[in-house]
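Please, structure for the following, as tokens.
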Amino acid sequence: MSSSQLARSAADAPRWRTNWLDDEAALGRVLLAPAVIYIVALVGFPFLLAIAYSLSDATVGSTALDFVGLRNFRRVLDDPTFWTSLRNALVFTLVSQFFVVVLGKVLAMALYRDFRGKWFVRLLILLPWVAPISLGSIGWLWIFDPVYSIINWSARALHVFGPDTWPVWLGQPHLAMASIILVDVWRLLPLATVIILAGLSAIPQDIHDAAQVDGAGFWRHLFLINLPLVMPIMLVALLFGIVFTFTDLIVIYVLTRGGPFDTTQVIASYAFFTGVEGGDLAAGAAIALFLFPVLVAVAIVFLTVARKAEVA
């Protein structure tokens, strides 16, 4: 085909097609459409279904579905176990994320420097995040075993525990909460480390060199340069950690199942045990929906603070 024929065919092409490809806004919407459809199908439909269930009397094994209004929400608010689960979820989330952010910052600063075997250390740190959380939780279940716990036997061998000391990690209320917090920190620490490490790598080297020339020590460099510049990305890491922890079910289900005496019961696990294992889908959906306003409020606050910190 000659050049004149190619030019003629290009001129004959529909003008709307050329305009569509040149329109960045329209092209952006088209490219985002698969992700939006995926999110709507994965999150939007179950969310609407949960609202429908919470306003009905749906139960497992029954096809009857009658509208009952806000009766399930009133039942949940009158349930003392729900308030215990909410308090436990807040303690579980806040304490674990405090350690995740602090330790993630320390590890990110350590991995930012070059040293021999750096790739191997990074591999070890990433393993908890790569491994399935269910398998990791089963491993921790063996570690916390009341008879064969490697923690207890090692502490006994090192004379840290006396002959009459043998903690039952998952059977005592305070130790059970500390145990699931430890597992959650182990699980989410790699994610926070990678995110904060990316923020550290984005700081221009000229800033570090200028601070070194000005004679800034470690602590001045940390609090006046390092933390302010990495704060927005740290807030994003904290937001991800709060969402993952507040909605976590697997760690609680595998390790304690909410026990002992509901001292490790959180909203996500209580909704599962009520709606699925208990068969009361309506009440379970109503409990689970209380996660939504809390997470939306947290996301709005953190994203607003991160944006202001980035602008500043």
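The mean pLDDT is 84. Residues 80-112 form the longest helix (33 residues).
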